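Budget justification aside, the reviewers requested a transparent look at the raw inputs and outputs of the sequence design task funded under Objective 1. We therefore reproduce one unedited record. The lines immediately below are the structure tokens for a 494-residue chain.
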């Protein structure tokens, strides 16, 4: 589905009548007779086409006076894949709003991060999404409030504060307006056994995604490259520490057939929406795998790989600066050596955390901490040492910024200007830290080996020419090509 597809009434009606879950999060159906809005896959009998109208966002539905359906819970649908596959102003603004910037810094802070005026941002968001940044942030606060109401025994006053509301009254009014129920009524509807978290201080959530999802390379990559103390694979879950705006957290993520089970421990509950957003982004949960696979399947040499194991995602990161530092540590060394280098830095310079379940001990060091490290203490060749120290120094002083709002082309150019940054390092950062779905690694040894085995061109120039037909999903093609190898990154740990 393309930008503005919610204006294609015929296509939207077909999706609603077929209850097509693939389009959940792409658009929302507002029912004129009942004044409720639903996701396309709502299980109730579809309304008559003349009673349907369509909106591009839940916030636009709410602004138009519609309330969320109690059956299909449209506020819990996967996010639109547009925001992770585009690099324009609206997409970058949506990624920042998802990261909680409006709640922390207001619309002026959003504008400053993007380098535009508040008027320009509001105008573009209204034009494409039917709602401005404040309304979009308000919809996110309402969703966070509902999560906390339904998954914790916290008092409502604490939930209001944690969800980002400025007062109890605003919290009550917003929840009632969006869900047609008061906060207390929302909690009362829950089965008694599900009220509250199973473990004190732990939030248990379900992260939805569009099927299919192949967890092998996604969790396999994260587990195989896990830095001791910061990450681990335990009892079928990938666990790691999180550096967050108000504090820190620990998350455990377990793949299931129809959702990712998420267990979060937070030092400050205000970080809940940010933590969820970053975990979803790390696991690429808002992708549209059918669209990606359909495009790649048009190449007859890729088609068998996709038919064998469809739904591969791109394993990303919860911290762009951390990933960039680790990419440099991993230059021209094995996965095991890169983990060892990173673990030494974590032990010496990471911030200690308390893990109630044991196993995790630190946050990955901040750029500021790494910039203060004595270069002579780094056990790596002099040239890579210079690359590493230049990177962390520029990240620490703000000369280089890596974030969800980054302009992919601009960051690429800045990285390429640094000593020791070649195309492979820049594109692996673009793919896994910045989230560019079209990042490509034609010089990667594993990719060249896979290409040769499949009968694809194996020289970088020829492979790049062949891969033009895979655009804009070349980062996903990389996952399918890597998966032809027996490396541990391609398999769920036993």
């Amino acid at each position: 589905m393309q930008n503005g597809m919610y204006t294609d009434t015929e296509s939207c009606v077909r999706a609603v009548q077929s209850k097509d879950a693939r389009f959940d999060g792409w658009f929302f159906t507002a029912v004129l007779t009942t004044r409720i809005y639903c996701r396309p896959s709502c299980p109730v009998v579809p309304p008559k086409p003349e009673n349907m109208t369509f909106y591009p966002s839940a916030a636009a539905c709410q602004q138009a006076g519609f309330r969320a359906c109690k059956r299909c819970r449209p506020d819990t649908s996967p996010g639109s894949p547009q925001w992770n596959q585009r690099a324009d102003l609206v997409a970058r603004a949506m990624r920042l709003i998802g990261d909680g910037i409006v709640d922390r810094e207001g619309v002026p802070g959003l504008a400053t991060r993007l380098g535009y005026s508040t008027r320009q941002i509001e105008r573009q968001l209204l034009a494409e999404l039917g709602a401005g940044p404040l309304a979009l942030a308000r919809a996110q606060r309402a969703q966070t409030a509902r999560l906390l109401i339904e998954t914790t025994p916290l008092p409502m006053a604490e939930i209001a504060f944690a969800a980002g509301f400025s007062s109890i009254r605003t919290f009550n009014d917003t929840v009632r307006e969006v869900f047609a129920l008061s906060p207390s009524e929302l909690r009362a509807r829950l089965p008694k056994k599900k009220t509250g978290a199973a473990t004190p201080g732990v939030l248990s959530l379900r992260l939805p995604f569009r099927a299919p999802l192949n967890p092998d390379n996604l969790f396999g990559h994260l587990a195989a490259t896990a830095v001791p103390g910061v990450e681990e694979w335990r009892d079928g879950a990938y666990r790691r520490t999180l550096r967050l705006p108000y504090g820190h957290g620990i998350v455990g993520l377990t793949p299931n057939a129809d959702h990712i089970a998420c267990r979060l421990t937070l030092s400050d509950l205000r970080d809940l929406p940010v933590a969820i957003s970053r975990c979803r982004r790390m696991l690429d949960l808002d992708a549209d795998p059918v669209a990606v696979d359909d495009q790649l399947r048009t190449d007859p040499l890729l088609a068998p790989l996709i038919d064998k194991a469809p739904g591969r995602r791109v394993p990303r990161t919860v911290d762009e600066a951390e990933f960039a530092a680790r990419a440099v540590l991993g230059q021209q060394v094995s996965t095991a050596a890169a983990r060892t280098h990173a673990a030494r830095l974590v032990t010496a310079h990471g911030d200690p955390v308390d893990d109630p379940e044991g196993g995790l001990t630190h946050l990955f060091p901040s750029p500021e901490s790494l910039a203060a490290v004595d270069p002579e203490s780094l056990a790596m060749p002099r040239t890579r040492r210079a690359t590493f120290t230049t990177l962390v120094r520029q990240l620490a002083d703000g000369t280089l910024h890596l974030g969800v709002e980054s302009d992919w082309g601009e960051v690429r150019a800045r990285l390429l200007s640094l000593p020791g940054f070649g195309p492979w390092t820049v594109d692996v950062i673009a793919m896994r830290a910045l989230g560019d779905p079209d990042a490509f690694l034609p010089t990667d040894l594993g990719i060249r080996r896979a290409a040769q085995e499949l009968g694809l061109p194996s020289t970088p120039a020829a492979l790049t020419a062949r891969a033009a037909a895979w655009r804009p999903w070349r980062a996903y093609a990389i996952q399918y090509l890597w998966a032809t190898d027996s490396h541990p990154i391609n398999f769920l740990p036993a």
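Residues 133-151 form the longest helix (19 residues). The longest strand covers residues 248-255. Computational costs for records of this kind are itemized in the attached budget.
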